[in-house]
Amino acid sequence: MQSFFEHPHASTPLSVSAYIAIEFAEPIAIRRHRSPDYPRTMSLDLSYCGFTLPGGALGLIDRYRLPRVSPPHALLDWSRRISEAEYLELIGPPDLDALAAKHRGLRFQLDWRKEPGHENHYGQVENVFALIEEFRYGNRALSYTLTVSDMG
Asked: 42 and 140 in contact (C-beta within 8 Å)?
């Protein structure tokens, strides 16, 4: 497996992002409404959501043994489906207090929203709320796909 640092076209660690895509059994809610026409997959940018990534996004390539999935001359992508246990180790349970305790960046974003004038600033945190809601609703996750992408 060729790592990011060994690849001749790799850019910088700052241009690397990590995403988790969760495929659910039922369509996900959009603005609290459900429809059979809605997508079943929810994707979260882990860094923007404030999740702590051991070794940064690049550290996930080796930690989760992500194979390179991009063509030789394209931007670099490493990806694979991960198990529920791996998901829980990386992200944590679908509980806001537990997630905030585990991920300092998420806790910072939640605390920032408590400050006057920031109460309605959701940004990426809104995606975390939506993810928790899906699990509370009882929407069962069918698969989890972890992707690390070099955006060039």
From this structure: no
Report the alpha-carbon distance of residue 99 to residue 91 in Å, rounded.
7
Chain centroid to Cα 19, Å, comes to: 4
Joined tokens for residue 84:
């529920």
Separation of alpha carbons 101 and 5, rounded Å: 32
In the β-sheet with 77-82, what is the strand arrangement from edge to edge?
41-45, 16-24, 141-150, 77-82
Residue 111 burial (C-beta neighbours within 10 Å; 0-12, 13-18, 19+) = exposed
Q: Which amino acid is at 19?
A: Y
Strand partners of residue 144: 22, 82
Tokens of 141: 């996750």
**Helical H segments across the chain, by residue range:** 56-63, 84-90, 96-102, 104-114, 125-137
Alpha-carbon span 76 to 147, nearest angstrom: 10
- The pLDDT tens digits of the residues spanning 52-105 come to 888 888 889 999 999 999 887 777 889 999 999 999 999 999 999 999 899 988
Angle at 106 between CA 58 and CA 41, to 5 degrees: 70
